[in-house]
Specification:
Keywords: ATP-binding, Membrane, Nucleotide-binding, Transmembrane, Transmembrane helix. By secondary structure, the chain is of the alpha/beta class. It has 19 helices and 10 strands. The protein folds into 2 domains: 321 residues, ABC transporter transmembrane region fold (Up-down Bundle), CATH 1.20.1560; 225 residues, P-loop containing nucleotide triphosphate hydrolases (Rossmann fold), CATH 3.40.50.300.
Length: 584
Amino acid sequence: MRKYFLYWQNAGNLLWEAYGSYKSHFVVLVILGIVANGLEALSINILIPLFSFFGEDQSATTDPISSFIVHLFGYLNLPFTLIGVLVLICLLFVIKAGVMFVFGYLKNKVKNEYERNLKDHLLSRILSAKWPYLLKQKQGYLETIFTVDVIRASSAIETIFSIIITVTGLLIYLLVAINISQAVTAMTIVFAIIGFIIFKPLVSQARRVSQKSVNLQKDAIHHVSESATGIKLIKILGVEEAVSAIGKLFSKEYERLQNKGAVIQHLAAVFIKPLSVIFISFILVFSYYYTAYNIGALIAIVYLVQQMFGHVQNLQVFIHTLNERVPYIRAVLDYQKEIIKAQEEYNEQNGKPFIFSKNISFNNVVFSYTSHKKILDGVSLTVPRGVAVGFVGESGVGKTTIFDLVTRLFEPDSGEILVDGTDIKDIRLSDLRNAIGYVSQDMFLLSTSVADNIRFYDSSITNRQIIDAAKKAHIFEFIDSLPEKFNTLVGERGVTLSVGQRQRVIIARALARNPQILLLDEATSALDNESELYVKEAIEGLKGKTTVLIIAHRLSTLSNVDKIFVLKDGKIVEHGKSILADHN
């Protein structure tokens, strides 16, 4: 029992942490629930004086509520007649309907507002999280948070409100039942406690099944997302059946857990109905042989007991549903705490502005992804403003890492990176990144128009700038030949474009921003010789205006650079202009 109590205490703390900011809404809805259920219970109690019109037994109006109703008619100088009582009952139910409409509206409003705020908050936090943290996330995990966890956590609000209306109804019915018969109410409470003890183990089982389902669902979505990303390789290697078999195992286990959860949920629900009939039959026998109930009181108490059993049945379903939602709520809260700890420091208030008129320098920079191996080991270099430099070396020697450090996606373990003598850690992060144009070897395109892909969420970029950038990237003539020109949709991940065309659109995206520093990471790897020539000419035209850093395996790309740095084992082993001729 203590374990059960602790679980619900922890669950209560969890719900308060998740929805505590909406406490005023909960108070209003509790009040509305009390009013709505009170109106219905009052209508039921009026059955007692109502039935007094069909017989001579005037004891029907001896209970406190019935007596109050009779006196209320007298106080208002209204005749206590059959029609008057029926009008009162109808009026109470109409008012209750209005209250329930407001209740339903507020319930949905709070749920939708919570979901919107939560999604906005999480998206904002994810986009401003540190790059190392994001790299560690499983594929499909963020999608699961948004499409599953947030939705289920939001729906839990509806369940809580349903519990509120059910519990308030149960308490109101209980008070009215006590007003009519304390003995029958006491028997009902005892019967309910016995039922609670019998069905209590099902709640614990439901909680365990729900947690397993949540974890399994995340793994299944990760498997699907991972498979979708590598579908081309899967087909080429002919391993479709193996991948499908793993998916089927996830589906089969999830089906088993869902079936088990459904059995647990319905097991208690299906027995409440027959148990209520048995108990009501017992009440009828008890009333017939041992009490002097009139027909009105008997009908009212039987109806109240039936309603209470119905509410208990609904409450059992709602608690089971809330039990299922608790793991999702916990997952959302845990992720919120986790993502807050992983936020980048933008230095917007105390950071220095980005001023670049002299050079970028690395001073004895050391960096490692793990403690086992240093990717950069004491790298020092200087790049003057307005020049173009290249980085060459075998894969894994730290070329891309240098770019990631310049953009502050990573922070060096030791050493410093300076722009005009200012450590980039002290510069406002937004200023730094706004000054950088970046073309990576991963060609990311939105499934929208060519223009949108070049603009890439920067509304300050004009159509003229888009056209100029497209010309510099040698993609304008191709775009101009398209049916919708710059408004042509590129398809999912740019599927309607060739690899070379995609790469030139991405180069145009970087050039449209007129960056002070341009980072090209294998930016010409997918271009043919003619297109590469045009891009090299564009880079040559940037000299003196933009500082260009280029990573390339094709040495021809670096023919016009001012200096080349050769990396090996995390160190710069050679640098200079003559390196290209030596390697050729």
